[in-house]
Amino acid sequence: MANQTPPSPAPGPAALLKLAQDDPRRAEAVWHGLSREQRLRTVLAAKGVERERLIVLAADSRELAQQLPPDEFATTVLEVGPEDAGALIELCSDEQLTYLLDLTGWWKENFAPERYQIWLPMILDAGAKRLQRWLANTDMEVLALLLRHWVRIVKFLPSQEQQEPPDDLPEFTIDGVYFFEFVDPKVQGFVAQVLVLLKSEMPEAYYRTLEAALWEQTAELQEYANRWRSGRLADHGFPTRLEALELWAAPAPGESAWQDLPPKASVTERAAPRSDRLSAMLPEQEFLPALAGELTGEAGDLLRAELAYIASCGVAALEADPAHPEEVERAARESLGLVNLGLGVLSGGDPVKAREVVSRLSLAALARQGAAAVRDLNRRAWALAKEGWLSRMPTGLHILEPPLDRWLAGLVYARPRCYDPNLGQNREYRAFINLADVETADSAIKQAAFWGTLLLELLALKVEDIRGLYQGEHLSPEDPTDIKLSHVLGTWLARRELGLEGLAPIPAARLREAVTALQKALKHGLEDELAESLRALPDPAQASLAGRALRGVLQHLSLELARLDPEGEMDPRFIAGLVVEA
Fold first, then answer.
1. Do you know which InterPro entries this protein is assigned to (predicted)?
2. Which domain covers residue 383, as residue numbers?
3. Which of 313, 342, 462, 572 could form a disulfide with 370 if both were Cys (CB 3.0 to 4.6 A apart)?
């Protein structure tokens, strides 16, 4: 029997769009030669404008657009932007449109009619049927709130004595009973068409909505509208804030015993196809992007559906504005980072074990494991800053050398942040995303904690003496937060070489002498002398840590002092590593 040729893989979005530019007929033939699922997955592999162009290229563009999960559709529209999303609004299903408006038409729990106003003219441009379907699928409370924002309504019921309306009534009316004064002339034409269509095609809804806009309290209308909205969003997997915060809760008892759980595929319903945009928010070498790239078919769809839920939890819990893609991406990346971190914690960094963990344990449970690891760092850093030796220092954690000061500052936030000097754009902090982040933060906390042992126990400095470095009207450095561990140690060593007792700022008259003495000591075995004294510590790990800490500061001092000429002019403001009476 002859070997059958396997079907050709679907072309990528960029290749197909390039072909459409060069040879439209050939591109159309290739595009429609694919199955609908292949075309859907090709659309999902694209972003924003490319997605829209691929959808419009299809003969069954309406069916293809409506196959997108509501969250993927909303993301596409927001990427394209309100100015250019008219085609998508025309093609989408009522469910997709409702999801978009439910997501972006509110700010937290507050209805924002001006946001609805962005999309509604596109609905009108899509034709009367599209507008009528939107009206039929929109809650009466939302329509009443919108009308209250757009128009001032006056109801006039003529009596037998007064058959003509008074002169002070607004001019616009459809039925001679309700009169409308438009608050914003820019939307007058659009709102008038909405009212006319509502009255002609849905008269009962017209009267109910106007009566509600006239008499119901705004708070009550908003409460009911938000209740219906929350229910619809929940049906599509978008959590309440309380539910979303469960990602940051303590892990449930036994939740980490993933070996005892059955495979998730056996207990989870089939998920719709989705894109890799969420897993791509993390560096490609991380566990989640790697797993999303490996899994195909139903298993891949299940993982991506879970990722979508986790990302939504991040948006809800961190109160990101769904109408702003940048905010959404930051919040989603943070919650996905917790999952990736939890996966690293439970797998111990083993990729094979990570695959097994994900096949059995929910991503929400993994996020809780990651949150627990970050919370432990926060607890330890907070104890060190508020109860440990740093709490007795005049400037607290500012006394630490960079980057320890940056690490501790990030870890004591209410939402602990990972210090990352490579971020650029004047940013230093990001969310924790992997085990290496936690291990580096753990090392920073240990080093910061040990400096207290080194200063107060091994070198026998007194807190009162360290405080004395900060006392005086004319000191250099002028800003107390610029006095670091290197200043404490450098000043102590300089005073020791000068034969001065205690710890206090170097007298200005002896600055040149102090620099000379310290330069000489650093060149002739001061580092070895201190290292030798530390080797006598009974704990080898402690001795090693002390050696690294001292060596780093001494090397910093050596570099700073090496550029100084004791015979030349010396300005205390430009001498790092010493506290001087200016």
1. DUF6178
2. 373-452
3. 342
Among the residue ranges 78-92, 266-280, 338-352, the one predicted with the least confidence is 266-280
**DSSP string across 137-164:** HS-HHHHHHHHHHHEEEEE----SS--S
Give the whole-angstrom CA distance, residue 54 versus residue 232. 29
DSSP secondary structure code for residue 360 in this structure: H
Number of structural domains (the chain) is 5
Q: What is the DSSP letter of 506?
A: B
- Please indicate, yes or no, if residue 234 is contained in any of the structural domains: no
SS3 of 545, please? helix
Instruction: Report phi then psi at 581, rounded to 5.
Output: -75, 110
Compute the mean pLDDT over every residue in the chain, rounded to the nearest whole number: 89
Q: Cα(341)–Cα(344) distance, rounded to whole angstroms?
A: 5
Residues 6 or more apart whose CB falls under 8 angstroms from that of 496 comprise: none
Residue type, 559: L
Q: Is residue 236 part of a domain?
A: no
- Binned at pLDDT 50, 70 and 90, residue 6 comes out as very low
Domain assignment of residue 549, yes or no: yes
The residue out of 361, 394, 417 marking a domain boundary is 361
* DSSP string of 35-51, one letter each residue: -HHHHHHHHHTS-HHHH
The rounded percent of the chain whose pLDDT value lies above 90 is 59
Yes or no: say if 484 and 401 are a contact pair by the CB < 8 Å rule: yes
CA dist list (Å): 378 to 375, 432, 540, 576: 5, 12, 27, 31
Buried b (16+ CB within 10 A) or exposed e, 203-216: eebbeebbebbeeb
- Say if strands 418-424 and 427-430 run parallel, antiparallel, or are unpaired: antiparallel
Question: Does 212 score more than 90 pLDDT?
Answer: yes
Exposed, middle or buried by CB within 10 Å (0-12, 13-18, 19+), for 316?
buried
Question: How far apart are the C-alpha atoms of 322 and 108, rounded to whole Å?
Answer: 9
pTM over 0.85: yes
Whose tokens are 């006056």? That residue is: 154
Query: Is the confidence at residue 549, as pLDDT, over 90?
Result: no
Distance CA 206, CA 455 (A): 78
pLDDT at residue number 106: 93
- DSSP letter string over 438-455? HHHHHHHHHHHHHHHHII
β pairing state of 172-173 and 151-155: unpaired
User: Is 215 found in the same domain as 158?
Assistant: yes
Per-residue confidence (pLDDT) for residue 410, from 0 to 100: 97
Comparison of pLDDT for 518 and 122, the residue scoring more: 122
Residues 470 and 530 occupy one common structural domain? yes
In 432-445, which positions are buried (b, 16+ CB within 10 angstroms) versus exposed (e)? bbbbebbebbeebb
CB contact burial 497-508 (16+ within 10 A = b; e otherwise): beebeebbbbee
Which ranges of 67-181 would DSSP assign to H, the alpha helix? 70-80, 86-91, 94-104, 113-125, 128-137, 140-150
Measure the CA–CA gap between 60 and 205, rounded to whole angstroms.
33
Domain match, 388 and 469 both = no
Does 118 lie in the same domain as 99?
no
Convert 20-41 to b/e letters by CB count within 10 Å (16 or more is b).
beeeeeebeebbeebeeeebbb
State whether 220 and 191 are in the same domain. Answer: yes
